[in-house]
From TrEMBL:
Species assigned in the record: Streptomyces kunmingensis
Domain of life where this protein originates: Bacteria
Motif 'HIGH' region boundaries: 127-137
InterPro entries in the record: aa-tRNA-synth_I_CS (IPR001412), Arg-tRNA-ligase (IPR001278), Arg-tRNA-synth_N (IPR005148), Arg-tRNA-synth_N_sf (IPR036695), ArgRS_core (IPR035684), DALR_anticod-bd (IPR008909), Rossmann-like_a/b/a_fold (IPR014729), tRNAsynth_Ia_anticodon-bd (IPR009080)
Domain Arginyl tRNA synthetase N-terminal: 9-90
UniProt protein name: Arginine--tRNA ligase
Acetylation is among the record's keywords: no
């Protein structure tokens, strides 16, 4: 099925044609700058600036443009307003016909795919081996997954990279402890997520205690690091056991999050070990990195620390070891060369933004990044507690993710249970819906705030039925589904010949904007714009449903059918939009 041009684009094109007829010197590319408006359906604001440039009177130019407009079936009225704006009203027919074309396009809803899709490699959901996941990891996973859904929908090819922290000197300590206490880590195949994490916690704490108190153990642990780095087989096998055990835990959390993570996309820091010596050599040979006190570093004039001295990016330490930066620089080479990436996205805590600024700039100097391949860090803000301070337990520790997710599901299940009897939900359905509502609430609270801002983790607010929450959207969806079930004898059919009520037009115009919105939000990496769109859609539906009876009191048959058509398209748009954000919409709630 062909994609559908939105009404906004059609009207914009119509006005652009009239504009270049009225003012030929403005050329074919002159943009009337059409926006949705409260006064009419749309307002065009572009004429003012063009008139100024052509030294013409804006109101006169606006009137000339109106004179050139071909109205056809699309436009009902175009009038000059204010200093030289155009207020535009489209016909009811145009609205319903366009929506009918969208409705005929299955899940895509007439949304076009990119003409020149690229390859976006998205670095997200990157917890650390042998460590518990915290709320920061939640944000990366949720935002990354939503971005991926949105980009995929516009035809972009996306590849996930879960750059887990699976390398570093702490493994010397862990592995040495495991060698000396072989029974402490049950095989990954024998444990569930919770057991895996409690095993790892136990080993971590125990080995840390020995490490801190026993100098000889410390020395053995140091030697173990060297063995690990030189690729000693026995050491690597034990390291792999920590990775495998951790993966059991990661997968259980991702499953809780209702998120699909693919094994082949878990490519951690260690995966780039073999590339790092070459990365360092290339950087040094080209002069981008220099030796300083024996270390290999990149300097940036423009990046200074608090003391005013340049902050270097350390590619290779004095002792020859490679760290986080070398791994990230090598990952860039790999993603660009082997994965053919055109865009590199990183969904990482804003506190790492200096690191990425330096890594990207170094890669740019090397020509690994440039006009053809760009990199962006979607640095996200901090998760705050209900008191507005960084989210910590009473003991001051970072809050563990699983407990939070369980609590969200528990609260949501209680909310679902309240209405369960009335709508006839089975126990299994209550449990499933509770999960979708609870996890949806957590995801939506994160996604509805722009990523770079902090947000409050407030469970009471998150599962509230009123306000900008996923539950509100899920209820709107389920309500429409119930209306559709109750109207079984009638079909949802578009009737373009009907005159529309104001609330029908408002809903219809918003439905039409879905495709443009998904495009814009994807291009700006802004899931919060999609969330805001969906919230508005649900609100417009509520107004429509209050003002325009669908079956009770029963209007004329064609009106019933047309309203059911609007109901159905709203439900499908809500469902699809939420799916792009990674949130489920239960059929009955
Ligand atoms: N390519 C990257 N450096 N990605 C981010 C990794 C995040 C890191 N594992 C952390 O927990 O902070």
């Amino acid at each position: 099925m062909a994609s559908v041009t939105s009404l906004t684009s059609s009207v914009n094109q119509r006005l652009a044609d009239a504009l270049s007829a009225a003012l030929p010197e403005a050329g074919a590319g002159a943009d009337p700058l059409l926006r949705r408006s409260d006064r009419a359906d749309y307002q065009a604001n572009g004429i003012l600036a063009l008139a100024k440039k052509a030294k013409a009177n804006p109101r006169e130019l606006a009137a000339q443009v109106v004179g050139q407009i071909v109205q056809g079936d699309l436009l009902l009225e175009v009038e000059v307003s204010g200093p030289g704006f155009l207020n535009v009203t489209v016909t009811d027919r145009a609205i319903i016909e366009t929506l009918a074309a969208r409705a005929a396009d299955g899940d895509r809803l007439g949304v076009p795919v990119k003409e020149h899709p690229g390859v976006s490699v998205i670095d997200y959901a990157q917890p650390n081996v042998a460590k518990e996941m915290h709320v920061g990891h939640l944000r990366s996973a949720v935002i990354g997954d939503a971005l991926r859904g949105m980009l995929d929908f516009t035809g972009e090819r996306t590849i996930g990279r879960h750059h887990i922290g699976d390398w570093g000197t702490q493994f010397g300590m862990l592995i040495q402890y495991l060698i000396e206490n072989p029974g402490v880590l049950a095989p990954a195949a024998d444990v569930d997520g919770e057991q895996a994490m409690s095993n790892l916690n136990r080993v971590y704490k125990a080995s840390r205690a020995v490490f801190d108190s026993d100098e000889e153990f410390k020395e053995r642990a140091r030697k173990r690091v060297v063995a690990l780095q030189s690729g000693d087989k026995e050491t690597l096998d034990l390291w792999q056991r920590f990775v495998d055990e951790s993966k059991v835990y990661f997968y259980s959390v991702f499953e809780k999050l209702d998120m699909e993570i693919r094994d082949e996309e878990i490519v951690g820091e260690s995966a780039y070990n073999d590339l790092m010596p070459e990365t360092a050599r290339l950087l040094e040979e080209s002069g981008v990195a220099v030796r300083s006190d024996g270390a290999l570093v990149v300097f940036f004039d423009e990046i200074r620390g608090k003391d005013g001295e340049p902050v270097p990016l350390i590619v290779q330490k004095k002792d020859g070891g490679f760290g986080y930066a070398a791994s990230d620089l090598s990952a860039i080479r790999n993603r660009v060369k082997d994965l053919d990436a055109t865009t590199l996205l990183y969904v990482v805590d804003v506190r790492q933004s200096l690191h990425f600024k330096m890594v990207f700039e170094a890669a740019r100097r090397m020509g690994w990044l440039g006009d053809e391949v760009t990199a962006h860090n979607m640095g996200y803000g901090t998760v705050l507690g209900a008191d507005g301070k960084p989210f910590k337990t009473r003991a001051g520790e970072t809050v563990k993710l699983e407990g939070l997710l369980d609590e969200a599901v528990e609260r949501a299940t209680a909310v679902v249970r309240e209405k369960a009897e009335k709508i006839g939900l089975s126990e299994a359905e209550i449990v499933e819906n509770g999960r979708y509502v609870g996890i949806g609430a957590v995801k939506y609270a994160d996604l509805s705030t722009s990523a770079n801002r902090d947000y409050k983790f407030d469970l009471d607010q998150m599962v509230s039925l009123n306000g900008d929450t996923s539950v509100y959207l899920q209820y709107a969806y389920a309500r429409i589904k119930s209306i559709l079930r109750k109207s079984e004898g009638d079909t949802a059919t578009a009737h373009p010949e009907l005159e529309l009520a104001a609330a029908e037009r408002a809903l219809g115009l918003h439905l039409d904007a879905f495709g443009d919105l998904v495009y814009e939000a994807s291009a700006e990496y802004a899931p919060h714009k999609l969330a805001a769109y969906l919230y508005q859609l649900a609100s417009l539906f509520t107004t429509f449903y209050d003002q325009c009876p669908v079956i009770k009191p029963r209007p004329a048959q064609d009106v019933v059918e047309n309203r059911l058509f609007l109901c159905e398209l709203t439900a499908r748009t809500l469902h699809q939009g939420m799916a792009l954000l990674g949130i489920r919409t239960p059929e009955k709630l």
